[in-house]
Amino acid sequence: MRVLAQRLVFCALLGSLYASCPPRCECSEAAHTVKCVSRELRAVPAGIPGYTRNLFITGNHISRIGPECFKGLDNVTTLSLSNNSIINVSLISLKPRISEVDSNTFSGLRSLRSLDLSNNQLAIIHPEAFMVQNHSLLDLNLSRALYNHSSVMDLATSLRWSSLGALRSLDLSHNGLIFLPSHIFSHLTSLQRLLLSNNSLVAIHNSSFTGLERLEVLDLTLNSLKAVPEEGLRELDSLPRADLLLGENPFTCTCGIESFALWLNRSQGRISDAESLVCAYPTGMRNTSMLSVVTLTLGCHQSGAGADLALQTSYVFLGIVLGFVGLIFLFVLYLNRKGIKKRINELRDACREVWEGYHYRFEIDSDPRLSQVCTSADI
Fold it and tell me: Where does the signal sequence lie (predicted)?
């Protein structure tokens, strides 16, 4: 009887243990972990144990996520919702079956440190989508998470409005970003790692990195940077503690890249992949080390000086030719001075006769008596 009672108690405990784990999920109380991976789930499962610290709900088809999905999970520190086809971070669903993440969805996770929303399609991001109590969130992964590059404006608003002052790592890689809005990261004053690799950024400007004095890593590899203008160089210099990654960009090594090439040589200690940076264009400079492009800079200046010298030489030559033509003209005038003087006198006499004729006619017309004499004389 005693043995039978022990077995019944054991079975009851075992049954309660399995009952505490949601269907199609794997739970480990010892590891404080719950995994619901690739289980064709349509919603966040109910009944997640309160001991959970690490919650992985990935590879499913979640249709909606709201604050009620994570009630009673005050101990969760790591939450992964990657690869769930989440489309909207908004207050309401725009059309049937569009996945949705309500405002303040994560605000009840008082201990949340890491949030992974990678491999989703966030088309609309509500300003309070990442609101977390106690400013606890330290790591936010949005890699391959934006529906398209236009979502970056909503993201910028959300980063300003949400409580992310303690955030240390932000991953925005593989999102097809073409530009960064002005001051997009200015409220992330504790950020240490910013990953922007594998996007389509064409320029660094608009004070995009303002407020990131504590940044330690800035990854800009695999973008579309052809050069970095003076404004962009000043922004990069405003990150004194950051190690920069600039590889796999299509740098165009023409005369316009002079200041960037000089900056690279001056800042090699801050650029982790400086030795691997090469020219992509023009064809003759392809695979040339960016650190050696300073010689091209000198060539550009020499070419410019040569052009100026050639222009000055042409002006001098033109002046000499015009002066020589002028001398010839004066010499011809000197040889024909008598004939020219005669022609001038004849022209002067002809003008005088014409003038006297006009003067005579004017006197006749102005005196009626002379006019009558002339008339009778004609008769």
Answer: 1-19
Reference 299, options 237, 352, 257, 345; nearest CA is 257
Distance of CA 40 to the CA centre of its chain: 38
pLDDT single digits (tens) 321-338: 888 888 888 877 777 777
180 to each of 190, 295, 298, 305, 375, how far by Cα in Å? 19, 33, 33, 38, 99
Instruction: Enumerate residues 6+ apart whose C-beta is below 8 A from 20.
Output: 27, 47, 49
Q: Residue 14 burial (CB < 10 Å; 0-12/13-18/19+)?
A: exposed
| CA distance to 129, 139, 173, 210, 235, per residue, from 195 (Å) | 20, 12, 6, 16, 16
Structure tokens at 290: 């960016």
Query: Is the preceding omega at residue 181 within 30 degrees of 0, hence cis?
Result: no
For residue 1, count other CB atoms closer than 10 A to its CB.
5
Phi-psi region of 76 (alpha: psi -120 to 50; beta: other; left: phi over 0): beta
pTM for this model (two decimals)? 0.73
**Helices 230-237 and 258-266, packing angle to 10 deg:** 20
Q: What is the pLDDT of residues 163-209, one digit of tens each?
A: 899 999 999 999 999 999 999 999 999 999 999 999 999 999 889 99
